[in-house]
Amino acid sequence: MKEIVKNYYAIVFGITGGRTTAYRITIFILAVFCVLSLSGISLLLRDMLPVKQISIAFKFPYYIVTGIAMYILLYALYPASKIASKNQQKQTNYLLVLVTMLIAILLYGYSLFTSLA
User: Which among 36, 13, 33, 34 has a CA at the least distance from the CA of 24?
Assistant: First the structure.
């Protein structure tokens, strides 16, 4: 996950140019992808495991709270100083960024598709 955070940070830093802004946007993007992935997984596992209580966290008014909790968790796990200092030494792996984005979107999309069918 650290590599994913660093790669997203490098891309956002290249676009914005500000360290703090890039860090906050990176954490926000990763929180959204984590919520999408967890929502998709909970929808896919609802028939196999008792995840009814977990799936409530991804309904309309509650997913905002879930997203904020994920943002705070990621903000605490990945301090800005460590990401910014280690980022200048490595090149960005765009494939890793694309794969994580596609996995989150496919999980969520497939789970929505199966719930409609």
Answer: 13
Residue whose tokens read 């929808």:
43
Which residues, at least 6 apart from 15, have a Cβ–Cβ distance to it below 8 Å? Answer: 22
Query: What is the per-residue pLDDT across 11-50, written as a single tens digit (0 to 9) for each?
Result: 998 899 888 899 999 999 999 999 988 888 887 887 777 7
Q: How many CA atoms lie within 13 A of 67 on its CB side?
A: 13
Count, in order, helices (H) and strands (E) of the chain: 6, 0
Do the Cβ atoms of 37 and 16 come closer than 8 Å?
A: no
Query: Is residue 93 within 8 Å of residue 3, measured between CB atoms?
Result: yes
Is a pLDDT exceeding 60 seen at residue 87?
no
pTM for the full predicted model: 0.82
| Dist. CA 28–CA 74, nearest whole Å | 9
Least Cα distance to 116 among 43, 54, 32, 33 occurs for 43
